[in-house]
Amino acid sequence: MKASIRSNGLALAGFAAVCTLLVSLVNYFTKDTIAEQKQQLLMQQLNLLLPAGSYNNPLDTDCILVSDQPLLGSDKPQQLYRARLDQQPVAAVIQTTAPNGYSGSIQLMMAVDLQGNISGVRVLSHKETPGLGDKIDERKSDWILSFNNQQVKGEDDKRWAVKKDDGMFDQFTGATITPRAVVQAVKNTALYFKANQQELFAAPANCADTVPNTQAPAPNNATGNATGNTGGQS
């Protein structure tokens, strides 16, 4: 009996060791491919937001980590990619957070130039309600494009609100909380960039060892979408 138990234990230990070895080998031989795919996805996202020919530096490596909970919505470091044309600063692509979405935080990426003009905003991930709040995703509606070529004139710029709050941005039928959160996050991020431009472009790049906060698009619902609250918003 004891010999049988010992034999079975050795067999299980051997099986576990083989499985661990196989997983390690797969990880070793695929890590470069995975890293390359992540980099390609990152560049696709960056190029969606900045006009072609507006910069000529390696945007994906000219990157710093920034953190400002009041304006960037999170106390965790987020990536800021610096665009330069002939070594002169021209714009930035900033990863930012809308912390007060209907079903949780909404991760965003936006591009803004030195004059404060926003060239684009995209949603990286969210858990908003399918059919309601998920219209912030470009694959669901073109609402997110309403930020293109807009500018925040100051902290008291009352245009930066949904129309229900007397602003200039549409809300969704039955879902006001989600667009309201995104509008506020984009406004705050533009204010952050305007207030810190000089320091942001002078800081040494430090994103080399950080995995970009990017995700591949989900096949059906919005990026990173999970089953969230199904009730309406006010």
Helices and strands, with pairings:
Layout: H1 2-49, E1 63-66, H2 69-72, E2 78-85, E3 88-101, E4 104-113, E5 117-125, E6 150-151, H3 177-202
Antiparallel strand pairs: 1-2, 2-3, 3-4, 4-5, 5-6
Portion in strands: 15-25%
Main β-sheet description: 6 strands, antiparallel
The unreliable regions are: 209-230
| Beta strand count | 6
**Number of spatially distinct domains:** 1
Shape: globular
Helix count equals 3
Walkthrough of the structure:
This protein is 33% helix and 20% strand. It is of the alpha+beta class. The protein has one domain (1-234). The chain has a 6-stranded antiparallel sheet. Strand 2 and strand 3 (88-101) form a beta hairpin. The radius of gyration is 22 Å and the shape is globular. 35% of the residues are buried.
List keywords for this structure.
single chain, about 230 residues, alpha+beta
